[in-house]
Amino acid sequence: MPFEDLGFACIDHHRQIRRGFPEVIFCPGKTTEQIIKIFETLAAKGNNVLATRAEPDVFEALAKTNKFPKVRYEKMAKAIVFEQKELIASKTVLPIVTAGTADLPVASEAKVTAEIMGQRTELICDVGVAGLHRLLKHLPKLQSANVIIVVAGMEGALASVVGGLVSCPVIAVPTSIGYGSSFEGLSALLTMINSCSAGVTVVNIDNGFSAAVTATLINKKIEG
Question: Are 36 and 43 in contact (CB under 8 A)?
Fold first, then answer.
């Protein structure tokens, strides 16, 4: 079976195993039957399995096979999670910060992804620039983090604000939340890319998965 059909995210199989990464399936573009077949193949290797952007009917079909009693569906993240290999939890907490409640689906994808890779996470929600005072009470925990994920739509300014307040890398995730002139996340993406906060790095629109992988790699390197 070709590499891409197995649904791996950008990293080869052996490196995933060494670092405790899960096997990953990107569900859009695949039939339910294909997803189940790939899931079975990956689960047989003994590693944890994550299926992203999965619709509820895909999970229901997978659950009906009765082959994965521990499998669960994270509705907000639209992720299927199968944990069969226990990982050592990270020493530090990975904060995942959202500008608004509407950004939660993307933040939840980041949270689920980071956690299945052994990261301890904390969601800090609804602290965008329209209510910036809410961010300040979380400042001590943000300043003690090794890396932070910031998820924001509209104009995407929150990533720059957080980046200017902390001395660690900020992984910014633009979301497709906003009015017409946000151009489905393009406005937030451009704002984040043009951030004057030097520690801000940007992933693709709505790509909570990639942000979590990047943040995990940084945290694992720091913690050794």
Answer: no
The sign one gets for the Cα dihedral 103, 183, 8, 20 is negative
Q: Measured between alpha carbons, how far is residue 200 from residues 30, 96, 150 in Å?
A: 33, 14, 9
CA distances from 112 to 82, 116, 123, 143, 223 (A): 11, 6, 11, 23, 20
State which amino acid sits at residue 179. Answer: Y
138 pLDDT higher than 90: yes
Answer yes or no: are the C-beta atoms of 120 and 223 closer than 8 Å. no
- The mean predicted confidence, pLDDT, of the chain is 88
Q: For residue range 81-127, what is the model confidence (pLDDT) as tens digits?
A: 999 888 888 889 999 999 889 999 999 999 999 999 999 999 999 88
The H or E element that residue 51 is part of is: strand 49-52
N- to C-terminal Cα separation, the chain: 34
Domains recognised in the chain with CATH numbers: 3-82 (no CATH), 93-223 (3.40.50.1970)
Query: Letter for the amino acid at 50?
Result: L
Burial label, 171 (beta-carbon count in 10 A; 0-12, 13-18, 19+): buried
